[in-house]
Amino acid sequence: MAKKSAIEKNKRRAKMVEKFSAKRAALKAVTTDQAASMEERFRAQLQLAELPRNSAKVRIRNRCEVTGRPRAYYRKLKMSRIALRELGNSGQIPGIVKSSW
After folding, report:
1. What is the pLDDT of residues 70-91, one digit of tens each?
2. 52 and 88 both lie in a single domain
3. Which are the contacts of 44, defined by CB distance < 8 A and separation ≥ 6?
């Protein structure tokens, strides 16, 4: 099980991303717009830099929904390999059985 503080920090980051996503997208659109003047683009870049760092989407870490583990994460299932194996062995995930040959 991951530390509660790390899990909560990741949740706070996700909330902050949601809060600033519209503003961040608008500023990014101005910075990449070739028709805008150089001063306008530079001003938008400075405003983008003033936004909180945790409002960037890349700061969110994929974590297992069951244990909070940050590594060996399956995106499709939203869980780690260890949690997947435990739930699969106990028969709680349909279609997953222990392999043997």
Report:
1. 999 999 999 999 999 999 988 8
2. no
3. 27, 30, 31, 36
Give the residue carrying structure tokens 């929904």: 65
β-bridge mates for residue 79, sequence order: 74
> Does this model's pTM top 0.85?
no
Please indicate, yes or no, whether residues 56 and 73 belong to a single structural domain of this protein: no
Find the domain containing 9 and state its range: 1-61
What secondary structure, in 3-state letters, does 39-52 show? HHHHHHHHHHHHCC
Whether 38 shows a pLDDT value over 80: the answer reads yes
Q: What is the total count of domains within the chain?
A: 2
CA 84 – CA 69 distance, rounded (Å): 12
Examine the domain organization and report whether 87 and 40 are in the same domain. no
